[in-house]
Design brief:
With 219 residues, the chain is α+β, with helices and mostly antiparallel strands. The protein has two domains: 55-83; 86-218, Umud Fragment, subunit A (Ribbon), CATH 2.10.109.10. The protein is built from five helices and eleven strands; from the N terminus they run αααββαβββββββαββ. It has helices at residues 49-52, 56-62, 64-84, 112-115, 202-205; strands at residues 86-90, 105-109, 123-127, 134-141, 146-150, 153-156, 159-160, 180-183, 188-192, 208-209, 213-218. The strands form two sheets. The protein has a seven-stranded antiparallel sheet with strand order 1-2-11-3-4-9-10. The longest helix has 21 residues, at 64-84. The chain is elongated and about 105 Å long.
Length: 219
Amino acid sequence: MTNLPPTQTQRQTLWEGASLPPLRMRDEKPSVQEQPAAAPAPVAPKPSEASVATGPSNWFRRNSTTLLIVALLSIPAYFLASRYVVTAVVIQGRSMMPTLKDGEHYYLNRWQYLLMTPKRGDIVVIKDPGHDDFAVKRIVAQPFDWINIKNGILYVNGRRLDEPYLAKETRTDTPDLKEKWIQLGKDQYYMLGDNRENSEDSRFYGRVMRENIIGKLIK
């Protein structure tokens, strides 16, 4: 009889019963499954120098050079600004009442007349020709104007000057109470105080040159 290959039902299991441990050599130790290495613990980042150096004192040390430069530049800047731009002034005396009162504080704009010409009606600070100091007066006439003071009234170029800033019944008289005619030349101005009865001005010391006008008074 011809031997036929065994069918599926004819195959027998090589091992029966419980499964046996895997084969190993005599001197071989049982294999142990290696555990994966544990991940290293995270290390806290070292604080940077910027995070350590905090506080006002450390900030000052880091910026000391900048602060020193700013301080050194501020001194000449303040000097130049107060000398050529704006200066604080205090009114002394009553020659400009009622417009300006004794003890009031204002600012002197030195820069304005570097760009433009003084005008009639401006209140200005001048080098006082009558004294070795400064004075606050109002420009009532400018270069090439004709001035006539007569009977307590001020005329400029033949017309009575409108002066709403004066107190009522204010008179503009000459020191000798006589009529006066004056013609201004180039760069010449005529200055009066608003308190005409108590003001030493161009009626006493005459024309004021443009170079003696320091600047315009502003609030």
